[in-house]
């Protein structure tokens, strides 16, 4: 049996179920994107609706990135794998759903800027790409990424957690580090439009590469350099930030009220 086949065989059924949940999330996002269209900022959503949409986005985007760790963690210790995977994923998604609050604030600012100040929109785009790039190259990013890239060590570390809600605590703790690792990349969604599905796919691929590719650390730094370059280029090519410089078809208000 090849090494690849062995890894596939070791991918537990509950962890595979996380991929099915993520796939269902992508289908739902595709339907919503077709119905709502592309709109800047909060897309006309109130806070509650925005949080619900953000939670769906994070389930679709981030569950595939935590599924390999969930498979390893639930294989390492005894207990019902399905329940343990569910608690871990639940804690993980709680952290990412909480990130909807600052995301909504940034999107709200973007929406106000788009409506009347194109120069300010460009400044915001520069700021978003620059912050993403600087963070990608920061020691804090390296620390959080090192945490996410050490699944076996984490599994044994979390083995010291005790109590009925141990797996939920693991999900919360791991989710916190994952948020610390990836929040800079997620801010890019405000610049390109929150329902920009192609960019969402690229971001998921980038996060997976950072966490699991042998060259993931170097790749993370390359992403930082690319983001810094975009912060310069977007000044002369504002269309690179369609979420802040939308065309007429993006601001006609179609569909947002249906959420």
Number of helices, where a helix is a run of at least 4 consecutive DSSP H or I residues: 11
Shape: globular
Rg (CA only): 19 Å
Helix content: over 70%
Largest sheet: none
Q: What is the helix/strand order?
A: HHHHHHHHHHH
In the predicted model, the low-confidence regions spanning at least 5 consecutive residues are: 1-9, 251-259
Question: What is the averaged pLDDT score?
Answer: 84
Distance between the termini: 49 Å
Structural class category: mainly alpha
Q: Tally the beta strands.
A: 0
How big a fraction of the residues is strand?
A: under 5%
Summarize the entry for a quick read.
With 259 residues, this protein is mainly α.
Write structural notes for this entry.
There is one protein chain. The protein has 259 residues and is mainly α. The chain is 74% helix and 0% strand. It is built from 11 helices and no strands. It has helices at 3-9, 13-36, 47-76, 81-98, 100-114, 118-136, 139-148, 151-158, 166-192, 197-212, 216-233. Helix 2 (13-36) packs parallel to helix 4 and helix 3 (47-76) crosses helix 8. The longest helix has 30 residues, at 47-76. It starts with a helix and ends in a 26-residue tail after the last helix. Residues 1-9 and 251-259 have low confidence and may be disordered.
List the helices and strands and how they pair.
Layout: H1 3-9, H2 13-36, H3 47-76, H4 81-98, H5 100-114, H6 118-136, H7 139-148, H8 151-158, H9 166-192, H10 197-212, H11 216-233
Helix pairs in contact: 2-3, 2-4, 3-4, 3-8, 3-10, 4-9, 6-9, 6-11, 7-9, 9-10, 10-11
């Amino acid at each position: 049996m090849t090494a690849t086949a062995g890894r596939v065989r070791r991918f537990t059924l509950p962890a595979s179920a996380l991929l099915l949940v993520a796939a269902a999330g992508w289908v739902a996002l595709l339907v919503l994107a077709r119905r709502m269209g592309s709109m800047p900022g909060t897309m006309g959503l109130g806070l509650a609706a925005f949080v619900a949409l953000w939670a769906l986005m994070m389930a679709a985007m981030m569950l595939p990135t935590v599924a390999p760790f969930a498979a390893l963690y639930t294989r390492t210790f005894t207990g019902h794998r399905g329940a343990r995977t569910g608690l871990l994923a639940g804690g993980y998604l709680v952290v990412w759903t909480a990130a909807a609050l600052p995301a909504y604030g940034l999107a709200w600012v973007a929406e106000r800027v788009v409506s009347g100040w194109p120069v300010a929109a460009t400044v915001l785009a520069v700021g978003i790409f620059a912050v993403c790039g600087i963070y990608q190259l920061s020691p804090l990013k390296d620390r959080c990424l090192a945490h996410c890239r050490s699944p076996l060590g984490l599994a044994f570390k979390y083995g010291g957690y005790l109590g009925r809600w141990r797996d939920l605590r693991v999900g919360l703790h791991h989710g916190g580090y994952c948020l610390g690792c990836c929040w800079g990349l997620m801010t890019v969604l405000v610049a390109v439009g929150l329902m920009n599905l192609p960019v969402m796919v690229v971001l998921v691929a980038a996060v997976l590469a950072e966490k699991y590719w042998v060259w993931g650390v170097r790749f993370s730094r390359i992403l930082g350099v690319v983001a810094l370059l975009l912060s310069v280029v977007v000044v002369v090519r504002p269309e690179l930030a369609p979420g802040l410089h939308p065309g007429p078809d993006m601001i006609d208000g179609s569909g947002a009220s249906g959420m």
